Amino acid sequence: xxxxxxxYLHAGLAAASIVLSALxxxxxxxxxxxxxxxxxxxxxxxxxxxxxxLWTGAGLFCYGLSMLAWLVALTxxxxxxxxxxxxxxxxLVYLGATHxxxxxxxxxxxxxxxxxxxxxxxxxxxxxKDR
Length: 131
Prior knowledge:
The protein has 131 residues and is an all-alpha fold.
């Protein structure tokens, strides 16, 4: 029973690392987006803007947690399996950047196709027999 629980824990930490990494990137981008909205006259104090601090701080926090989860997940899984799985964070970042109202970055056919290719590659790697 303990082995099954440990397997789920490590799989959950691997998934958490991927999701937290994407959230961290999105949060940091939202912070920089908020910084760009600060008037030029307050450029030096722009880093102290509450929106900049909130989003950037939340992004850094999520990214830090993702690294901790990543380290624990690496105790169980091979790096040659885990590293390609991090490609899912690219997919999540693309979806978040193009659909989150705070960012609303433009989507394009080429970016969408590239992102789909990443997802296909992750699926192929994750189905390997030597996990």
